[in-house]
Amino acid sequence: MIGFRITLWLLLVAWSSLQAGEVEYRYYRFAPTQLRVTNNCCVQLAEFEFLLDGVKVGTPSVSNPSGSNPNGETPDLAVDGSLTTKWLDFNQGPLVFDFGSATTVDGYRWSTANDATERDPIRWTLEGSANGTTWTLIDDRSDADQSVTTNREAYLANIDLNQIPDTPVITFSVSVGGVTSDEAVGLQNGQSALLDWEITGASSVTLNGSPVSATNTLSVSPAVTTTYEIIGSNGFGPASAPGSRRGFGQPTANPRLV
Predict the structure, then answer these.
(1) What's the predicted TM-score (pTM) here?
(2) How far apart are CA 25 and CA 29, in angstroms?
(3) Burial (Cβ within 10 Å: 0-12, 13-18, ≥19) of residue 112
(4) Could you report the per-residue pLDDT of 167-207, keeping only the tens digit for each?
(5) How far apart, in whole angstroms, are the C-alpha atoms of residue 253 and residue 207?
(6) Which of 7, 51, 59, 239 would be 170's cystine partner, CB 3.0–4.6 Å?
C-alpha cells in the first residue's frame, strides 16, 4: 500500500547560533553613568573582558569617542591583558569595542585600576550594535550602585547580561488516527494529520514562511513529500533546539512516502 509517513526532527540552521542570554554584535559600548565619588577628574579601569560561558572572547579594538586620555592611559590598554596598565578618560566617556565581525557574548567583567577608588564606575550601561550607529541596550546597571571592589587591580565578578529576553520555546507534535508523536507517525494515502504547536516568548511565528498564531492546530493532507517548518522569533533570534549548543532548531514535519 502506498502511504505517507510524517516524521518530526530538529533542523539545525547554520546561519544562527544564539542561546538564551546571548547576543551577537560587532560593536559593544560600555558607558559609565556614575563614579564612586563624583569628581571633575576622570574615569578609569584596568581591563575589560567579554565572556561566553565564562571564557574570554577575543580581543577587540577599542576607541573612546570624544575622550581625553593622557599618554600611556589610552583605550587600547583596557584590552591589553595587563592589570598594571589602565584606560583613563578626563571626559568620563564611553568605551566602544569593535570585534571586526559579529561576536557572541553572554557576559563580561572588568577590573579596577591601580589607584584612586573615586574614579571607579559604580553604575553603567552596556549596549550592542551591528553597525556602530544603532545601539541596543543589553545590560543596565544604571539604576543602583553596583558592588565594585575597592581593591586595586582586581576584577569584578562575572556579569551576566540582564536585558536579554529568552529565545522562544517551541512545543510541536503531529497526530494521525489517535496516535500523537513528536517523532514519527504513519500516514496512509488520503489521511489527514494534525499539526499542533505552542510557542512562548516569540514576537512572531511563521509556518512555511506565513504568519500564524503562537498556539494552533492545523489539519494537513499532503499528497507529496512536504516540509512543514515552524519558526518562532523575537528580537534576539529564533527558537533554540534543546541539546544543541551552537544551533537553532526549528521543529519540522516532513511527510514521506513509505
Answers:
(1) 0.68
(2) 11
(3) buried
(4) 777 777 777 777 777 666 666 777 788 888 888 877 788 88
(5) 11
(6) 239
The three three-digit cell numbers of residue 96, written as one number:
566602544
Grid cell at residue 33: 553613568
- Distance from C-alpha of 140 to C-alpha of 29, rounded to nearest angstrom: 12
- Phi, psi torsion values for 15, nearest 5 degrees: -80, 0
Tens of pLDDT along 40-94? 999 999 999 999 999 999 999 999 999 999 999 999 999 999 999 999 999 999 9
**Which stretch of DSSP H or E encloses residue 245?**
none
CB distance 219 to 192 below 8 Å? yes
**Which residue reads 563580561 in cell numbers?**
108
**Selection from 106, 100, 113 nearest residue 48 by Cα:** 113
